[in-house]
Amino acid sequence: MAHESSFLVLVHIFILLWHFGTYKVSSKPKVPCYFIFGDSLVDNGNNNELYSKWKANYRPYGVDFPKGDTGRFCNGRTTADIIGQFLGFNDFIPPYATATDEEISTGVNYASAGCGIREETGSHNGGRFSLDMQLVNHKAVISRLSRLQQNISTLKECMYLVNIGSNDFVNNYFLPDHYNTSRLYSLKKYTEVLMKQYSKQLRTLYKMGARKVALFALTQIGCTPLATSKFGTDGKPCVKEINKAAMLFNHKFKPLVEKLNTDNEDALFTFINITSILYPQGDRAMRTPPCCKLDGEWACKAGSIPCPFRIFHIYYDALHPSEISNIAMATRAYHAIHPADAYPYDIYHLVRVHN
Ligand SMILES: *[C@@H]1O[C@H](CO)[C@@H](O)[C@H](O)[C@H]1NC(C)=O
Ligand SMILES: *[C@@H]1O[C@H](CO)[C@@H](O)[C@H](O)[C@H]1NC(C)=O
Ligand SMILES: *[C@@H]1O[C@H](CO)[C@@H](O)[C@H](O)[C@H]1NC(C)=O
């Protein structure tokens, strides 16, 4: 298992070097702007000023990030950051919370740790912007853009990334002490209700001008150090019930994008199959302990010294992938290696389709 994982890391480093060789030289981004929606997997500091436990604006978060501890739940860049670099953006897309008028014309990141598709998801730990709220914020940004006399029709040419849904399971359905969803719905029914709401939210995004939209399906959320330590695994590497939930949900992405694309003639929704990317061996996947020392269930302990060899850890804290994992996911989301990685387009092709 150990050599499988180090081999994988090496492969990813080569892909990364090759990518930077290819893409760093381009001066003009492939799309005029890039908008990001989602949870802690792509949050870049929107929660910093909220009254909330969903925060990462302290060391050792950001130890490998040029601007330090910005609020990213990682040692370095998120998948959204890396994809932005592949798209040719020289600067990171700013968080909604602090984005200036000058910055918003190239895009905004609305993502918020702890949030979900459902409004109540994550509320037990305090403030966060739910997906509905993020859409409201996007509407406000569009108004700001029109006030600044920007051409709103270019919004159709922009890239949109949405990475959400994990918290609706791990910080809602599987927390029966705080949430009633597991009493209201069977798991199967819950994934249906959730997907229905998600589909509605994505239609709202489309109505606000989004056409090229990449949806990240869920990782095997039953394999995180938090899940395995909290629920136990019966000797297996992962928590079966939680992975089953993710799988039930993930299998609805293909019909979702097909429906969105046929109902809306010029829509280009696509989904990224993260399961196949982060855990190529399925349940026998690499399982490494988190890199940082924990404070409580999942977060890094403030001021602690992180592990020295971060490229050998899948997870940075007990929930969030380390930068090396994000590089692997972003690289294959951008340039699919396996046919199962992206459907119907990887991001490289998505931004080149003419709509
Ligand atoms: C606005 O952008 C669209 C699409 O890029 C373009 O076709 C149109 O000519 C632009 N309008 C103005 C007034 O610049
Ligand atoms: C379930 O919880 C939500 C808030 O989290 C509440 O609005 C709703 O009324 C509850 N439903 C039932 C049937 O208890
Ligand atoms: C993701 O990819 C794996 C193979 O790598 C495949 O077994 C699985 O069905 C795919 N998931 C979806 C939702 O397409």
Automatic annotation (TrEMBL):
Keyword vocabulary terms for this entry: Hydrolase, Lipid degradation, Lipid metabolism, Secreted, Signal
Record PANTHER family: GDSL-LIKE LIPASE/ACYLHYDROLASE-RELATED, SGNH HYDROLASE-TYPE ESTERASE DOMAIN-CONTAINING PROTEIN
CC annotations in GO: extracellular region
Protein name: Uncharacterized protein
InterPro entries for this protein: GDSL, GDSL_esterase/lipase, SGNH_hydro_sf, SGNH_plant_lipase-like
Compartmental location: Secreted
Molecular functions (GO terms): hydrolase activity, acting on ester bonds
Keyword Secreted: yes
The keyword Hydrolase appears for this protein: yes
